[in-house]
Amino acid sequence: MVVTYKDWHEMLPYALHGYCTSIQTSTRATPYSLVYSTEAVLPIEVEIPSLIVLAELNLIEEKHLTSLCHGQLYQKRIKSAFDRKVRPRAFKEGDMVLKKILLNVKDPRGKWAPNYEGPYMVKHAFPGGALILIDVEGRDLKHPVNADLRRQWKHPSPAGAEERLGKSGMWR
């Protein structure tokens, strides 16, 4: 038994054995069985005749296929959970977008620095999500950019400007 925190090293082998022989949720198998394709023989089972070991040998292939199938179902479940949260972004030629600023150096303005620059116009949109952009003067950007780092540009409406400005023409 661990009496103080200084005795943790004495109980470590028992904790590791417990982890290796417990069934994990994601794989529905023990880590030991996934590595060695057989269940771990517990110390108490060593004294019992090896019928357990013989029965385990017959089920190795079945367990392997079950684990493989469960792994594929788990990956599909994780993918569908991710895909539910993803918003598809479809840009077409002529759309106005903002480009995310990826800073390599620290900006002296800190958190007040702008996150996007632009607007840019989409010159060509590729099916994989890559975009070729041009600025408002018609100059091409050097490299194609990914649609993940773009945002639809909304032109500020004059009604919104009137709302923000008072009768004096000053910002509220």
Automatic annotation (TrEMBL):
<dbReference type="GO" id="GO:0003676">
    <property type="term" value="F:nucleic acid binding"/>
</dbReference>
<dbReference type="InterPro" id="IPR036397">
    <property type="entry name" value="RNaseH_sf"/>
</dbReference>
<feature type="region of interest" description="Disordered">
    <location>
        <begin position="152"/>
        <end position="172"/>
    </location>
</feature>
<protein>
    <submittedName>
        <fullName>Uncharacterized protein</fullName>
    </submittedName>
</protein>
